[in-house]
């Protein structure tokens, strides 16, 4: 079994949103293993038209009509992008609902069809007959009756996954650290993941970007990991149905979590003990790992204690970040990396698309906004190159920067030699272990880059075995936080009642 990374809920200009479907699929294929690009499809309990709602209704109705007229072109594009063993695509559409909460419907079958006359997830799925599909509730944390989840109407038979993180915020619990600040309103504590689990609901976690600018997987807005046999549509679909998933905010935090030998998402026989094996490889220094039994912390790993107790040996994680400036236009980066006295063991792209907050406000570069020119290649074990476009930060709290995290094998004498848009920078790991460095392309309000502090292996990796009490109805899950606030939420293992 292997971890694959994807985004099953994101948008572009095929309904309301920005960016071409072609570019969206190219962006996804560059830095994801699987994806769907999601059309907004219908809203059965849309509010009545009046002076306040006319603008909202108009762009929704226009978007819904657009996808109905172009559904065949959409499914053809999704099918064409599917590359078994390399990149897997799925079909999807989104339903808005006050009565049930919003849902994304995902399917591996090309004959999936939009059913605008149905008003609940169950009815939508049944109306599609033999088509294989699931409904995933998303941005669940909004107020009940205001397009947040309605737990009384949630049915795990049709919805084995729940989206816990997206660009709307994180709905794990009231203190998840990523609040809801979209114009749709605040998060309601009754509509958290913890609230649903406390009511006896059983589901696995997923993360998606809900990006509206044609960049599936855009960094920092959420994505999902799937534990599957292969990167094929059928293998990933099988794992989705079994709940072999977890959610991350941004970094591909590699997690293993089993209870009595069963992976996350499992429903297992009751037992007097829960033998838990866990492992974490983060993208930055660990802040903490918490294993929960029935939503209560049962085992905590303190990242600061790791830093005090472990030595500074490699391999090292080194993040090279780039973007900034006050310019609205897309800025192109060409960055080459060479390593003397060490090797590049692997690399994680952390690329962002344009930060379109409101889908109703389309830019003038509507189709080209997601023409980001992503490219990354490992030339050999000592050198790599990337090209990427970045937009400015939306605010001091909403970054537009992109990055690559390199895993570097070497020692303090290992030297990184970079060429950043023609400018040469050279620095050794001894310097980066002490602190990160930065530079600018122009004298003022400039595009800029940063090479972050190098993180030694003992600070980003941890594993262990623990034993907790077991009983019918118990469940166990894990949450991971990095020092840079990136997080992972590992789906529960449930003991049968």
Q: How would you summarize the topology of this molecule?
A:
Layout: E1 2-7, H1 21-31, E2 34-35, E3 40-42, H2 54-69, H3 71-81, E4 88-89, E5 91-95, E6 103-107, H4 121-127, E7 134-137, E8 161-166, E9 169-170, H5 193-198, E10 204-207, E11 223-228, H6 233-242, E12 245-248, E13 254-259, E14 262-263, E15 267-268, E16 273-281, E17 286-293, E18 296-302, H7 303-309, E19 316-324, E20 331-340, E21 343-350, E22 375-380, E23 383-390, E24 402-409, E25 415-420, E26 423-428, H8 429-434, E27 437-440, E28 447-451, E29 455-456, H9 457-460, E30 461-469, E31 475-482, E32 487-495
Parallel strand pairs: 1-2, 2-4, 3-5, 8-10, 15-32
Antiparallel strand pairs: 1-11, 5-6, 6-7, 8-9, 11-12, 12-32, 13-14, 13-16, 16-30, 17-18, 17-31, 19-24, 19-28, 19-29, 20-23, 20-25, 21-24, 22-23, 25-26, 27-28, 31-32
Helix pairs in contact: 1-3
Give an overview of the whole structure.
With 497 residues, the protein is an alpha+beta fold. It has two domains: 2-250, TIM Barrel, CATH 3.20.20.140; 316-457. Helices cover 16% and strands 36% of the residues. Strands 1, 2, 4, 11, 12, 15, 17, 18, 31 and 32 form a ten-stranded mixed β-sheet that branches. Strands 19, 21, 24, 27, 28 and 29 form a six-stranded antiparallel β-sheet that branches. A five-stranded antiparallel β-sheet has the order 22-23-20-25-26. Helix 1 runs parallel beside helix 3. The mean pLDDT is 94.
């Amino acid at each position: 079994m292997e971890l694959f990374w994807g985004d099953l809920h994101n948008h572009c200009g095929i309904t309301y949103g920005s960016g071409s479907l072609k570019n969206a699929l190219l962006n996804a294929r560059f830095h994801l293993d699987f994806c769907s690009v999601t059309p907004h499809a219908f809203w059965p309990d849309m509010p009545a038209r009046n002076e306040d709602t006319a603008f909202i209704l108009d762009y929704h109705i226009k978007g819904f009509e657009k996808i109905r007229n172009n559904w065949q072109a959409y499914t053809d594009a999704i099918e064409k992008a599917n590359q078994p063993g390399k990149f897997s695509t799925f079909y999807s559409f989104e339903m808005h609902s006050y009565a049930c909460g919003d849902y994304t419907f995902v399917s591996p079958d090309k004959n999936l069809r939009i059913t605008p006359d149905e008003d609940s997830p169950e009815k939508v799925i049944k109306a599609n007959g033999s088509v294989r599909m699931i409904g995933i509730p998303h941005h669940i944390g909004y107020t009940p009756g205001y397009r947040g989840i309605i737990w009384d109407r949630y049915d795990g038979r049709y919805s084995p996954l729940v989206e816990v993180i997206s660009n709307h915020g994180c709905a794990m619990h009231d203190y998840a650290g990523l609040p809801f600040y979209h114009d749709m309103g605040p998060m309601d504590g009754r509509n958290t993941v913890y609230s649903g689990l406390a009511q006896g609901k059983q589901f696995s976690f997923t993360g998606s970007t809900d990006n509206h600018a044609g960049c599936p997987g855009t960094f920092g807005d959420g994505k999902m990991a799937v534990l599957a046999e292969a990167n094929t549509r059928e293998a990933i679909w099988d794992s989705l149905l079994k709940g072999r998933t977890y959610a991350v905010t941004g970094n591909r935090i590699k997690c293993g979590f089993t209870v009595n030998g069963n992976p996350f998402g499992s429903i297992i026989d009751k037992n007097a003990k829960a033998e838990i094996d866990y492992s974490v490889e983060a993208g930055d220094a660990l802040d903490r790992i918490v294993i929960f039994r029935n939503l209560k912390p049962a085992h905590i790993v303190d990242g600061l204690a790791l830093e005090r107790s472990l030595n500074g040996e490699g391999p090292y994680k080194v993040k090279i970040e780039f973007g900034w400036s006050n310019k609205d236009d897309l800025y192109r980066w060409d960055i080459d990396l060479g390593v003397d006295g060490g090797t590049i063991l692997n690399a994680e792209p952390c690329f962002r698309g344009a930060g379109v907050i409101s889908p109703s406000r389309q830019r003038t570069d509507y189709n080209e906004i997601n023409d980001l020119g992503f490219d990354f290649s490992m030339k050999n074990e000592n050198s790599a190159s990337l090209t990427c476009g970045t937009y400015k930060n939306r605010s001091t709290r909403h970054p537009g920067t992109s990055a690559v995290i390199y895993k570097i094998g070497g020692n303090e004498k290992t030297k990184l030699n970079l060429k950043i848009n023609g400018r040469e920078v050279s620095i050794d790991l001894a310097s980066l272990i002490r602190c990160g460095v930065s530079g600018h392309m122009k004298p003022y309000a400039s595009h800029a880059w940063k090479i972050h502090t190098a993180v030694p292996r003992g600070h980003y990796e941890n594993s262990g075995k623990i034993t907790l009490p077991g009983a019918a109805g118990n469940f166990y899950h894990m949450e991971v936080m990095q020092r840079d606030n990136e997080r992972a939420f590992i789906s529960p293992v449930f003991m049968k009642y």
